Amino acid sequence: MTIVTGATGFVGRYLVNQLVADGVEVLATSRSERGEAYYKKAGIPFVRLDVTKEEDFNDLPRENVDAVVHLAALLSIDAAKWKPADYLMTNALGTYNVLEYCRKSNVKKIVYAMTHSDVNRSKDLVITEETPREFGGALPYIISKIAGINFIEGYSRDYGIQGIFLRFPGIRGYGSRDTHYNCVFHQFIQKAIRSEPIEIWGEHKTVRDLVYIKDVVAAIIGALKSKNAKGLYNIGSGKGMTIEEEAKAIIKAFSPPDNPSEIIYRPDIEEVRKRSYIFDISKAKRDFGYSPKYSYEEALIDYKKEMKRGRFNEI
User: Which letter does DSSP use for residue 261 in this model?
Assistant: First the structure.
């Protein structure tokens, strides 16, 4: 059995459904009431779990659990909603509680999700697993996630738990939380659908690594299957995209062919994105065969299909 914490989150929803489709025995967990209703309706085993509450772990099975995919976390985009102590309780103490459950229940593998925030101030264009931590902004979130990594490293060393950390760049996919924050990516999609002009600011030279949600899920499953993988792995596309390249791909995927959105260039307005980065994904390729299936254009085509399906709208 594989237990997934944070199963009602963006990555968790896609992961649980793919594991079930693959015939894997899964237990979905979350503190969300709506998530509980969704999974019960889908016939997928579910347990209400608040990772900050030690007593909640008593409801989890104590035997025949092969791995935990630990996705439960408070996100940096919700900083206005949470206090620093909330981040430390959920992301740090919550990870400790998950590890204690693993130790007591003889669970020998944990896969942990991490954003690129621990290197978000690095001056390196290519980010490897050896790139020194250099970060700023959203400190309660970043430090609490790093604390989770440190806990897992300690438990891997002292208790023989196979700890795997997957570091993701920006994840694209239908149903992501940033839809609710009207980020630039979603603004571009809505404008493309309506054939409205799309503005590109600055010199648009900054490049960012972006990865599709289904490639993220494939990476997690690859890590779960690996007997020898351990430590930190970059999971991305291994390529960089400018905001202009993103806009052109979005217009191609979402605008009516006979009336595509026009790109309006505004060099007089400073570009919001200021740091370029590309992930070196060679370690993940070597250790568990990770290789992204979707190009950015292919990801958008699949995104459009998922949008029409309205996938996970009830959660």
Answer: P
